[in-house]
What we know:
The chain has helices at 42-60, 134-150; strands at residues 8-14, 17-24, 66-77, 86-96, 103-114, 117-129. It is of the alpha+beta class. It has one domain (8-150): Hotdog Thioesterase (Thiol Ester Dehydrase, Chain A, Roll).
Amino acid sequence: MRYQFIDRVVAFSPEPPMLTITKTFPPTDDCFTGPVPDAVPVSLLIETLAMAGGYLILRSKSPDRLPVLLKVEDAVVTDRVLPGETVTATVTLRGITGMEEPTVMAQTDGEVSVSGRPVLRSGLLFVCVRPSAPNLEMSLALLSSFLEKREG
């Protein structure tokens, strides 16, 4: 199965940089056929948070850079997510290095919750690189276009 980690952008603020998204993992997803069939794997929740963080960086501070997850920092899981539940992920930009640098580093803080119940929180570290090949530039444009369609 091909996963899309953002169903809808619920809120975006450029200052301070903050993004909230929603995502539902339907009970028919093949992630529920694994060793823990009654819960969304934590790795998918972290990926959802990472996608939201990357989009926040792309949208608010680095439209010409491709954010790539470098490190998951201090992830704390407090509960599980059941099949069919809608998660809300909120990320804030903690810091970003100077945009004049060849490589930009960015940090986000995020939380995933279900109906207001926290299930995961983590810091994320990204490296933001300038695409140097035409296919990377096209990928960046396609990513931006896809995520903009999710807003609303």
